[in-house]
Amino acid sequence: MDRLKLLSPAKINIGLRILRKRSDGYHDIETIFHEVKLFDEIEFEISDSVEFETDSDEIPKDAENLCLKALRIFYESFGIHSGVKIFLRKRIPIGAGLGGGSSNSATVLKGLNILFNVGADESLLCELGSLIGSDVPFFIIGGTAYATGRGEVIEPFKVELPFKIVIVYPNIKISTAWAYTNVKLKNHRHKQSLKEVFLENLNHPEKFREMIENDFEDVVFEHYPKVGEVKKKLYELGSDFALMSGSGSSVFAFFKKIDDEKEQEIYDAFRDCKVFVLR
C-alpha cells in the first residue's frame, strides 16, 4: 500500500475534574472522553521526501506541528527513512477543546503503522502517543473512555448515547496551558466517579446538570463571557444537558430529539458561531 486516507475524529469531555497539581507540573484529572462524528481527514502517500500540507492556514508547519511530531516519533521508533506526503483537511476547530491536534497526531501514528506495515499494536501506539500529548492515547483507542492521570490512563467502556449532540464553537481560541495556569482547584473528595454518575443517570440527563461539571468553566466564562452565553442559550433552546468541552471554547449539548425545525432554530440562534449538529 502506498496511499491511504483516514478520518480523524473530534471528542467531547463529558465532565472534567481537576484533582490536583502534580510534582511534574501536570495535573491529575478525571474525565469521560467521547468520540463524536466530526472529522478531519488525513491522506498519506509514500513519497521521495517528507512533506506536510494542509488546507488550514492556522496549522503551524514547524516543530509545533503535532502531525510532524508524531511522524518523527514513529520514524525514530521503527527506524524508517522513507519519504511520505501527509495532507490534512481540517474541519475540527482549533483551540476549541475538541482534541483536534491530539486526534490528528494519533491518526498519523495509525496511518504510518498501516502504510509501512510495521504491525505495532494498540498499546505500543498508545505509548508513543503519550509522548506527544496526554489525550493522544484516547484517540488511538477511540469510542468512549473514562480517563484519569494526566488523561493518558484510559479505561474504555461501551455506551450508546440516547441523544443527538450539538457542538457550538464561538470562534474563540483558548490555550490549554492558559486554562490550567488560571484554573482554581475544587474539592472532589468523596464524590462518585464521573463514570458512575454518567452511567447511572444516562436516561435522566437532567441530573447531569447537578452532578457533572467542567472545572474550567468558571475561569473561561469569567474571561470569555460569550462561552457562558452559548451554554445558557443551549439550555434555552431545550437541551437536556450542556457543558463546555475540555478547556474550551466549544460547548456541546445533548438533545433527546432534533427535527428539521429545531435544527434550523439552533443554527439561527448561533449565526456568529460554528455549529455542528451531529445526528
From TrEMBL:
<dbReference type="GO" id="GO:0050515">
    <property type="term" value="F:4-(cytidine 5'-diphospho)-2-C-methyl-D-erythritol kinase activity"/>
</dbReference>
<feature type="domain" description="GHMP kinase N-terminal">
    <location>
        <begin position="65"/>
        <end position="143"/>
    </location>
</feature>
<dbReference type="InterPro" id="IPR013750">
    <property type="entry name" value="GHMP_kinase_C_dom"/>
</dbReference>
<comment type="pathway">
    <text>Isoprenoid biosynthesis; isopentenyl diphosphate biosynthesis via DXP pathway; isopentenyl diphosphate from 1-deoxy-D-xylulose 5-phosphate: step 3/6.</text>
</comment>
<feature type="active site">
    <location>
        <position position="11"/>
    </location>
</feature>
<dbReference type="InterPro" id="IPR020568">
    <property type="entry name" value="Ribosomal_Su5_D2-typ_SF"/>
</dbReference>
<feature type="active site">
    <location>
        <position position="135"/>
    </location>
</feature>
<comment type="similarity">
    <text>Belongs to the GHMP kinase family. IspE subfamily.</text>
</comment>
<keyword id="KW-0808">Transferase</keyword>
<dbReference type="InterPro" id="IPR036554">
    <property type="entry name" value="GHMP_kinase_C_sf"/>
</dbReference>
<keyword id="KW-0418">Kinase</keyword>
<dbReference type="Pfam" id="PF00288">
    <property type="entry name" value="GHMP_kinases_N"/>
</dbReference>
<feature type="binding site">
    <location>
        <begin position="93"/>
        <end position="103"/>
    </location>
    <ligand>
        <name>ATP</name>
    </ligand>
</feature>
<protein>
    <recommendedName>
        <fullName>4-diphosphocytidyl-2-C-methyl-D-erythritol kinase</fullName>
        <ecNumber>2.7.1.148</ecNumber>
    </recommendedName>
</protein>
<comment type="function">
    <text>Catalyzes the phosphorylation of the position 2 hydroxy group of 4-diphosphocytidyl-2C-methyl-D-erythritol.</text>
</comment>
<dbReference type="InterPro" id="IPR014721">
    <property type="entry name" value="Ribsml_uS5_D2-typ_fold_subgr"/>
</dbReference>
<dbReference type="GO" id="GO:0019288">
    <property type="term" value="P:isopentenyl diphosphate biosynthetic process, methylerythritol 4-phosphate pathway"/>
</dbReference>
<dbReference type="GO" id="GO:0016114">
    <property type="term" value="P:terpenoid biosynthetic process"/>
</dbReference>
<keyword id="KW-0414">Isoprene biosynthesis</keyword>
<keyword id="KW-0067">ATP-binding</keyword>
<keyword id="KW-0547">Nucleotide-binding</keyword>
<dbReference type="InterPro" id="IPR006204">
    <property type="entry name" value="GHMP_kinase_N_dom"/>
</dbReference>
<feature type="domain" description="GHMP kinase C-terminal">
    <location>
        <begin position="199"/>
        <end position="271"/>
    </location>
</feature>
<dbReference type="Pfam" id="PF08544">
    <property type="entry name" value="GHMP_kinases_C"/>
</dbReference>
<dbReference type="GO" id="GO:0005524">
    <property type="term" value="F:ATP binding"/>
</dbReference>
<dbReference type="InterPro" id="IPR004424">
    <property type="entry name" value="IspE"/>
</dbReference>
